[in-house]
Amino acid sequence: MDPHVYRIQSQNINCAELRQNLAVENHTGGLVFFEGIVRKQNHGLTVRYLDYECYDVLAIKEMQRIAKEAEERFQLASTGQIHRVGRLNVGDVAVLVYAMAEHRQEAFAGCRYLIDSIKTRVPIWKKEVYEDNSSTWVRCHEHINHVEHR
Amino acid sequence: MSSVIEIKYFAVLKEYSGKTSEQVALSNNESAETLYRKLQVQYRFPLATAELRVAINDEFASMDTLLHANDKVIFIPPVAGG
């Protein structure tokens, strides 16, 4: 069975429920979760809401590759990558990732690898809409480097 | 009937084109890059080819890949997950 979870969803991400249903094996010593939350201020502008779009088929394929890489680099027992799409308000959880490993160092490093990779590689886009109704498509600053070096 | 390809649009490219998808006739020796340059003129897309990636039939591909009949092409603007 695939020990990795990948999901694109429009409904809320429920971290507590996810944790409750997560099987923890005897050799697991560390489990790190990261939640990315919509914040009110970004680069000095006040955010009203975000609209996320996703190219689902390719996003899931890329998440699978990221999970495989993370598993190999950090000896992870299992990982999860769950991303919201649609309209999100300030305070909503936009993304949740977790990494499970025998020791905490690998779990922390693996979790960071997952979220950093999602931000630069997975075809998901975010439009920030501000209080004055202006908006912008946010770009990950590392995207271009990634295009060049891939 | 001439060969066609399907293009799907996301994010800023969807806004500028006003479309989620369309079918276009395939020219001879058309690469993803030459196709994008035509669309860029047609829809005044604000992104240069160097800022994009491309997926052909749901896999990342190089911008100089030659297109074939019935290919599904998606240009990928700078991503911003998380």
Model description:
The complex is a heterodimer of chains A (150) and B (82). Chain A has 150 residues and is an alpha+beta fold. In chain A, 33% of the residues lie in helices and 39% in strands. Chain A is built from four helices and nine strands. In chain A, the strands form two sheets. In chain A, strands 3, 4, 6, 8 and 9 form a five-stranded antiparallel β-sheet that branches. In chain A, strands 1-5-7-2 form a four-stranded mixed β-sheet, covered by helices on one side. In chain A, helix 2 packs antiparallel against helix 3. The relative contact order of chain A is 0.24. Chain B is an alpha+beta fold. Chain B contains two helices and five strands. In chain B, strand 3 and strand 4 form a beta hairpin. Chain B is globular, with a radius of gyration of 12 Å. The mean pLDDT of chain B is 96.
- Mean pLDDT across all residues of chain A, rounded? 92
Q: Kindly state the number of beta strands of chain A.
A: 9
Strand content of chain A: 35-45%
| Total DSSP helices of chain A | 4
Structural class assignment of chain A = alpha+beta
Q: In this structure, how is the largest beta sheet of chain A organized?
A: 5 strands, antiparallel
Order of helices and strands of chain B: EHEHEEE
The N- and C-terminal alpha carbons of chain B lie at a distance of: 44 Å
Quick check: average pLDDT of chain B?
96
Order of helices and strands of chain A: EHEEEHEEEHEEH
User: What value does the Rg of chain B take, in angstroms?
Assistant: 12 Å
The separation of the N and C termini of chain A measures 30 Å
- Helical coverage of chain A, percent range: 25-40%
Using a beta-carbon cutoff below 8 angstroms, give the protein chain pair with the largest interface and the number of residues from each chain: A-B, 27 and 21 residues
What is the assembly state of the chains in this entry?
Answer: heterodimer
